[in-house]
Every structure is written in C-alpha cells, then in structure tokens.
Amino acid sequence: MTFPEARELGLIDRIQDLLGERLVYLIEDVQPNPDVARLRSTYERFWREAGDCQTVIAVGGGSAIDTAKALIVGTESGSFDELLALLATGKPFVPARSKVLIAAPTTAGTGSEVTPWATIWDTVSQKKYSLHLDCTWPKVAIIDPELMLTLPARVTVSTGLDALSHALESIWNVNANPISDNFAISAIEDILDCLPKLHRDLSSIELRSRMALAALNAGMAFSNTKTALAHSISYEMTLRHGLPHGIACSFTLPLVLGLAWGRDESRDRVLQRLFGNDLVKAQARLRDFLHSLEVKTEFADYGVSAKEAEEMVEYAMQGARGKNFIGSRAA
Q1: Cβ(103)–Cβ(138) below 8 Å
Q2: φ and ψ at 273, to 5 degrees?
Q3: By the number of CB atoms within 10 A of the CB, which of 188, 253, 284, 295 ranks highest?
Q4: Quick check: 179 and 224 in contact, CB under 8 A?
Q5: ∠ at Cα 275 (269, 277), nearest 5°?
C-alpha cells in the first residue's frame, strides 16, 4: 500500500526486489485524507482479489498507513459499507477477519506507525470516522530517515507540525502521565530546534533522522493519551475549509496553549519546562516558530470569521478529543 509518486521514486522497485514472489498485490494510488468515496472500491477490490494474503505493508505518510488500517479490517461480507456501519456506532468491535500490518512511514509526523488510530473522511456527508481496534496496531514499524529525503518543504513542514501537535496535545490532556510526558518533552524540544533547520536544508540526513525520532516520540506520547482540543478543531477545519491536517491541527497551538495554561498545576509544570513561566512569551514563541515556517496562526487567515471560530472551538470542546483537553473540565 503506497502513494502515486512511490514508483518514480524507486520505492516500488526496491520493495519488489526485497519481497520477490511474496509480493502478491499492490495498491499505489493512495490519496491524502482517505475518503469513503475512494476507499469503498479499493477496499472491496482488495478483499475480493487479495483476501488470502496475510500481511499488508504500508509505505507512505499517514494517509497510506491509515488506508492500510482500514483495509486490514475485514467484514463478513467484504462490504465497505458494513465496516462504515460498525464505525458509525462509535463502539469497539471484533472484525470478522483481519490482517497483520507493517508500517514504514515516509514522513516524520503522523505517528500512525505506533498507534492504532486511523481517520476516514466522508467529505460529502461532512463526517469523520475514527478507526481503532486491536488489529490496527502495526505489528512492526520501520523508521528509515532515508525514505524521507525526497519530501518537499511543504510536506516536511506540515507533517513535522502534526508531530508537534501530537506531543503538545498529550501534555494538556486528562490522560497525561509521566511516560507520555517524557516522550512529549523530547519530541517538542527536538522539533522546535530541528524543523526550521530542516526547512532550510531538506537534504540533511542528520536532520531527517532527528525529525524521524521526534515524530516517533510524539507518536509514543499520544498513543498513551490520544489527542485533544487542537485536533478536535482541526477536523472541522479540514471538513469545512479543506485545510491539510498538519496545518489544521497546528495553527491553533498558541491559542490552545493559552486555554490550557493555569488549568492544572502538574500540566503547567511540564509546559513551563518547555516555554518558561510567562504565558504571553510562550504563546509568542509558538507563533514566531509557526510564522518562521510560513504557517499563519489566526482563524481569519483561513477565511473563518470570529463568530464561526468561537462556535467551532465550542463545538470541538464537546467532541471526543475535545473532552481529553484539560480545559474542557472545571479548573
């Protein structure tokens, strides 16, 4: 399971050389933000034509890995709509059949290779489905910074900011714990230092390696906690305004930092280890960091009115991820 550019980058030839006859099926047309309109035919064709295979290898960014997670969850009938109906209940279920997943990310950002979650979009109905089962945990994650050397600047920044959001979201989270804090702090410190440098020097294997490790640490952080308010807002920004996920979940980080500050002493201590004791300076540092990467930080910058922004934040606070945010409960 991979993305359209993988063939011209030589990735498919490398995989075919490595696997030989063990490679029995290939999907190379994964698009960003897996949408039910495309997934339906891909899913049903996969189970019809490659149902006997045991393992799926996802090579790509979060969209490729998320698509693979959806594909490995088999329904009794092989119908994708049966899977959607199960997801619509919001309750865990045991799939009729499943396959093993190996994930090899080509971006440093999503953390999907070390979490069970996948997001499936229905842009026509303006819905988002969240998939997470025991079988959607990848059995193996292969982190190879050389796979990330060809990423363009825009994708490098967007995925890197997704990782930053994962780490921060795991801190201002009702499920935070000392283990998730350690992973998050390491990730945030590296991303704040490394991502601007990588933006200027995309061919540096050293910087790619640092970002790959930071993204992995961020993934380990939020695999413990799930995400929170910034991600809850991001889903609406993607559905309503088409904003790419990495930008949608990161442009509000200064705002959400302000909403989190002062809510919980233990969370404040972790945030202040990273940003110091002055909230205004902390928010300014995050804004300056995002601006240095050419990311705008106000709702108005994305065509969202003040009224819609207020309503969006309020709505996001009521969502499953919004309820993970420490500011969603009384201080």
Answers
A1: yes
A2: -60, -35
A3: 188
A4: yes
A5: 60
Please report which helix (H) or strand (E) contains residue 122, including its range: strand 118-122
Judge residue 127's burial from the number of C-beta atoms within 10 Å of its C-beta, 0-12 exposed, 13-18 middle, 19 or more buried. Answer: middle
- Of 118, 294, 110, nearest to 212 (Cα)? 110
User: CB count, 10 Å around CB of 44?
Assistant: 16
Give the length of the chain. 331
In Å, what is the CA distance from 218 to each residue of 14, 153, 160, 184?
28, 20, 10, 6
Cβ neighbour number for residue 14 with a 10 Å cutoff: 13
Q: Which domains does the chain have, with CATH numbers?
A: 4-141 (3.40.50.1970), 151-326 (1.20.1090.10)
Q: Is the pTM of this model over 0.90?
A: yes
Residues 6+ positions from 316 with CB-CB distance below 8 Å: 229, 232, 233, 235, 236, 322
Question: Parallel, antiparallel, or unpaired: how do β-strands 55-60 and 100-105 relate?
Answer: parallel
Distances, alpha carbon 30 to alpha carbons 43, 267, 322, in Å = 12, 38, 29
Question: Number of helices (H) and strands (E), helices first, in the chain?
Answer: 13, 7
